[in-house]
TrEMBL record:
Natural source organism: Methanosalsum zhilinae (strain DSM 4017 / NBRC 107636 / OCM 62 / WeN5) (Methanohalophilus zhilinae)
InterPro entries: 4Fe4S_Fe-S-bd, 4Fe4S_Fe_S_CS, Co_F420_Hydgase/DH_bsu_N, FPO_su_F, FRHB/FDHB/HCAR-like, FrhB_FdhB_C
Claim: Oxidoreductase is one of the keywords in the record: yes
Names of the cofactor(s): FAD
Protein name (record): Coenzyme F420 hydrogenase/dehydrogenase beta subunit domain protein
PROSITE patterns with a match to the protein in the record: 4FE4S_FER_1, 4FE4S_FER_2
UniProt entry keywords in alphabetical sequence: Iron, Iron-sulfur, Metal-binding, Oxidoreductase
GO molecular function annotations of the record: iron-sulfur cluster binding; metal ion binding; oxidoreductase activity, acting on CH or CH2 groups, with an iron-sulfur protein as acceptor
Pfam families membership: Fer4_7, FrhB_FdhB_C, FrhB_FdhB_N
Domain 4Fe-4S ferredoxin-type: 5-34, 46-75
Length: 340
């Protein structure tokens, strides 16, 4: 019997989170670094050949796939605390994620984190962070997609206390790894995400065609106030309405039903907080414990516009994507997937 992820790939709802590649004992699954290739029958993509011929039928891949596992209808049932925070670390907004990682490295609470760095042309690279100063290489949101979880395969062999920072599908896959395969992940920090884009779409279509810019001019990208913004080296800002670029998002994003990373220990985003701050959702006891160790943060209780705006965008993502996801679920030969 073929693994369930073969159908997830066939129907183009594979998120390319990389959880399957991280846990497959025979390396039958591989996701390229740009998260664009997911073909289990393409001989060139696998270390030992085509997946169906190499698979030992352990089905670890199916146990860690977020699409197979399904989505929860209520993203806020496990939220213990909501507030805003900011640090003095340069970052996308309040720099909270960077502050969390730096503090935990400094206190020797984590051994490593997989992060994404970029050059001045927004070409990204997965890097392994093992010390506080490494965090500075990964600040800022890229809005393109790299298969973060797939890069955990080697760290699983070398480290015992791994933190994962990622968008909802990556956090979902990582949680399933924690629950089913490997106990070396100790902290999950989730990032709010409506959708992401392939690298070439961002650099060859959205930036030059929709915004009329050269990618080398851009120093920051952001979603805010219904628009996609690009900030340039000359101090100017440029924007385009989100509906104009939303159709260009990766196809799997249109079937994702998680906006705030419900499976995270700590969820972080800019929506719901004032400019220059991050919204923070503490979801688990581990999240509480690790966040209490973080130093150098300013906290704002009951920030505005607050949870109402976060829930509004969550509902928007669900209403846009649930129907498509459930349509695909009807095609699956298995019954695991769905909305619960």
């Amino acid at each position: 019997m073929h693994p369930k992820i073969a159908e997830v790939i066939e129907y183009d709802v594979c998120t390319a989170c990389g959880a399957c590649a991280a846990v497959c004992p025979v390396k039958a699954v591989n996701v390229n670094t740009k998260a664009e290739i997911r073909d289990p029958n393409d001989m060139t993509l696998y270390v030992k050949g085509a997946a169906p011929e190499v698979c030992e039928e352990c089905y670890a891949c199916s146990r860690v796939c977020p699409v197979v596992h399904g989505y929860l209808e209520d993203e806020f049932a496990n939220v213990k605390r909501f507030f805003a925070a900011k640090s003095d670390i340069p970052g996308q907004d309040g720099g909270v994620t960077s502050a969390i990682l730096k503090s935990l490295f400094e206190k020797n609470e984590i051994d490593c984190v997989v992060g994404i760095s970029r050059d001045e042309n927004w070409q990204t690279e997965l890097i392994l962070m093992t010390k506080p100063e490494d965090v500075d290489k990964t600040t800022g949101t890229k809005y393109t997609y790299d298969s973060v979880v797939s890069a955990l395969r080697e760290p699983f062999e070398k480290f015992d206390r791994i933190a994962v920072v990622g968008v909802p599908c990556q956090i979902h896959g990582s949680r399933l790894i924690m629950d089913n395969i490997n106990d070396k992940i100790v902290l999950l920090v989730g990032l709010f995400c409506m959708e992401s884009f392939y690298h070439d779409v961002m650099t060859e279509e959205i930036i030059p065609e929709k915004l009329g810019l050269s990618i080398s001019e851009v120093i920051k990208l952001d979603f805010a106030k219904g628009k996609f913004w690009a900030y340039t080296r000359d101090g100017e800002s440029h924007n385009v309405p989100i509906p104009e670029i939303a159709p260009l998002a990766r196809d799997p994003c249109h079937a994702c039903c998680d906006y705030t990373a419900i499976y995270a220990d700590i969820s972080v985003g800019s929506v719901g907080a004032p400019d220059g701050w991050n919204s923070v959702l503490i979801r688990t006891e581990a999240g509480e414990r690790y966040f209490d160790m973080v130093e150098g943060l300013e906290i704002m209780e009951d920030p505005k516009p607050g949870m109402s705006l976060i829930k509004k965008l969550t509902d928007m993502k669900h209403s846009n994507n649930v129907e498509h996801y459930l349509e695909v679920c009807e095609k699956f030969s298995f019954e695991d997937a769905g909305i619960y």
